[in-house]
């Protein structure tokens, strides 16, 4: 396990990502081909669900929406919690909403909830028991960063500070309204205000970054697999990035890491 994976266990830090899709088989085929993931059945609370594995260790989850739920698909960032019930109450007290749970996973791996911040960005809470979160990170095919994209950070950063204990640090090199969220002095996530550029069809949302060995090659593979390129490869202070969507429209960012 890498140091980063261990750091992500701190309460409040992103620890897991999960996707709800319309077609489990099509989604597994896409990410299996793109990242080399293999899949094994997971808890079936809301329908079919599988965990994605890379070299035998969990990296993400993929579930299937009920046929009558015509919702846009998206990746959900889960934040670690020492007590999901306490976190859920804090979310409500600070102006957020809890839409699901808290409830125990039916395979006894932990306790979870789904909530949203005051600006509507959806996120999960995970109180790990036997599954603490992503077991591989910092290498190709794994989630390596999570960032809240919102209209302006000032309207929502107090919520995350109060609920999860984040400290915020401005990042001038990442834009005029960009923050790093820190726990015990360690950067664990980001927050970026984009003003009128916030996508109308998505609103405020958490973005998942996945590592790839070569961004441009991965972008070509995304299109070959039926996905789309939303923001072409570009160099940034965080490396070479591209924002893409999978074959069902779930948006994520890829970043080049060896």
Automatic annotation (TrEMBL):
Species assigned in the record: Streptomyces sioyaensis
Entry superkingdom: Bacteria
Pfam families given in the database record: Glyoxalase_6 (PF18029)
Name this protein carries in UniProt: VOC family protein
Alphabetical list of InterPro entries matching this protein: Anthracycline_SecMetBiosynth (IPR052164), Glyas_Bleomycin-R_OHBP_Dase (IPR029068), Glyoxalase_6 (IPR041581), VOC_core (IPR037523)
Residues of the VOC domain: 13-128, 142-257
TM ranges: none
């Amino acid at each position: 396990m890498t140091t980063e994976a261990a750091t992500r266990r701190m309460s409040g830090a992103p620890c897991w990502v999960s996707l709800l899709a319309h077609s489990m088989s099509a989604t597994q085929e896409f990410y299996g081909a793109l990242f080399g993931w293999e899949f094994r059945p997971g808890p079936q609370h809301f329908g079919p669900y599988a965990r994605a594995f890379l070299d035998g260790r969990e990296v993400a989850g993929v579930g299937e929406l009920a046929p009558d739920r015509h919702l846009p698909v998206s990746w959900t960032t889960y934040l670690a919690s020492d007590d999901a019930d306490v976190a859920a109450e804090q979310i409500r007290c600070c102006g957020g909403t809890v839409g699901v749970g808290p409830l125990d996973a039916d395979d006894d791996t932990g306790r979870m909830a789904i909530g949203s911040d005051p600006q509507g960005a959806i996120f999960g809470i995970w109180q790990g028991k036997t599954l603490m979160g992503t077991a591989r990170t910092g290498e190709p095919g794994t989630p390596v960063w999570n960032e809240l994209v919102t209209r302006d950070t000032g309207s929502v950063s107090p919520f995350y500070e109060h609920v999860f204990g984040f400290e915020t640090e401005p990042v001038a090199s990442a834009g005029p309204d960009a923050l790093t969220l820190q726990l015990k002095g360690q950067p664990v996530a980001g927050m970026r205000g984009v003003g009128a550029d916030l996508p109308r069809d998505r609103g405020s949302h958490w973005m998942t970054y996945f590592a790839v060995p070569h961004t441009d090659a991965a972008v070509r593979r995304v299109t070959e697999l039926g996905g789309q390129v939303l923001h072409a490869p570009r160099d940034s202070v965080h490396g070479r990035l591209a924002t893409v969507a999978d074959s069902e429209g779930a948006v994520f960012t890829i970043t080049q890491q060896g």
